[in-house]
Amino acid sequence: MSKHFHAVVWIDHLEAKIFNFSKDDAEKMVINPDHPTRHIHHKANTVGSGHAGPNAAYLHEVAHALEGSGAILITGPAGAKSELMQHLTTHDPKVAKCVSAVETVDHPSDGQLLALARKYFHAADKATPQM
Description:
Elements: E1 6-11, E2 16-21, E3 26-31, H1 56-66, E4 71-76, H2 80-91, H3 93-96, E5 99-104, H4 110-127
Parallel strand pairs: 1-4, 4-5
Antiparallel strand pairs: 1-2, 2-3
Helix pairs in contact: 1-2
């Protein structure tokens, strides 16, 4: 996949959609975890929170796909976006420095996600040199 300056990722525990894009072009990559997290319900009188921990292999694969991007917008409907940001901060600080924002977004279409990202980065495009 050729790299553009901007990237947007929409992530949940079942898939990550990554778009590397410019004003007129976009390339899409979809990453699915090998063992997706299923909903776990906490039962009374049991040990543990009832929540599965982050899938490190999945988050690492997403982080690897974001390498080389100059500005990244992370989106998603729930906790996976925060888990990705925490993973980047801990394991891929170079990529973490390129994250412009983490935003809650439900389940947009690909076109809606790209429109949101282009709008978000529109002002930054004028002020940021793109390499």
